[in-house]
Amino acid sequence: MICPPAVQTTPPPATASPKIVALSGAAVFIGVGDIADCTSSGDEATAAIVDSVLKADSVAHVEDAVFTLGDNAYPVGSDQSFAQCFAPSWGDSTKSIMKKIHPAAGNHEHVTDLGSPYYRYFGKRVGDPKKGYYSYDVGEWHMIVLNSAILVNVGFGQEDESAQAAWLRQDMVDHRKACTIAMWHHPRFSSGFHGGDTRMLDLWKILYDANVDVVLNGHDHDYERFAPLYPIGVPDTARGIAEFVVGTGGGELRSFRNPPAPHSLARVQGHFGVLKLTLGAGEYQFAFLDVTGRAWDQGGGKCH
């Protein structure tokens, strides 16, 4: 039996910058989930590192974009939560973030009127306010944003779940990019406080059948990376989807469960940070950056 790596709690050296190799036609894709909490300064810190990366990479890459993975504004995703908690940090007009942001909704957004303040705040960029799922392209990659609240919130019904699944299948028919990332809030696999959610299984099956490469999630307030997996959690080196849980945007940090979930390759707890993806033609590189810019877990992969 191969033992999983230890949880990382000791910061890497201050010189541990991302080891990024030049990729053809590369774009930068950076973000995190579980962000703005008025009782924490973590969201100001993650906003600062995202802004600095965008400014540093604006010339070096053909395109860049910002993603969020839900729970953008604590505690209840209300108009007040967005105005008082999100707007001063990630929504700061002096930063580049809001010009390039593509959010996803989480469970906290849906506490207030099924996410109405979230849709009012972000407007057309988050799609139909009755759905919360949409897609877009960044460089050579196609990005799919799903609404996992449809699967877990009693305010939605079976017809909403079926509609999202049908839309997802059609979107992947309509967009034939070689490389695809899907993102939403609740992770299928996780060693964190909440753990993996089997209600995401059907989405994983659809994405796996369409050869999606990477899934990004939040919800658990830690960083974790899994081996490429088949939907039921079996490693698959040919067509498996690599999952990243990145819930370190500013909300209260939490520790991992013991033992960890099977096939967890890297875990960082107790540190705010963001995931930086450098997306090339047919491949990608990743690095989890803490708020000082130090790179923790980093590596790369190929598209299916």
Written account of the structure:
The protein has seven helices and 13 strands. It is an alpha/beta fold and 304 residues long. β11 and β12 form a beta hairpin. 21% of the residues lie in helices and 23% in strands. The mean pLDDT is 92. The protein has a single domain, classed as 4-Layer Sandwich (Purple Acid Phosphatase, chain A, domain 2). Strands 4-5-6-7-9-8-10 form a seven-stranded mixed β-sheet, with no helix packed on it. A six-stranded mixed β-sheet has the order 3-2-1-11-12-13.
Could you tell me the mean pLDDT? 92
Question: How much helical structure, as a percent, in the residues?
Answer: 10-25%
In total, the number of strands is 13
Do you know the CATH architecture? 4-Layer Sandwich
Compact summary:
This protein is α/β, with parallel strands linked by helices and 304 residues long. The protein has seven helices and 13 strands.
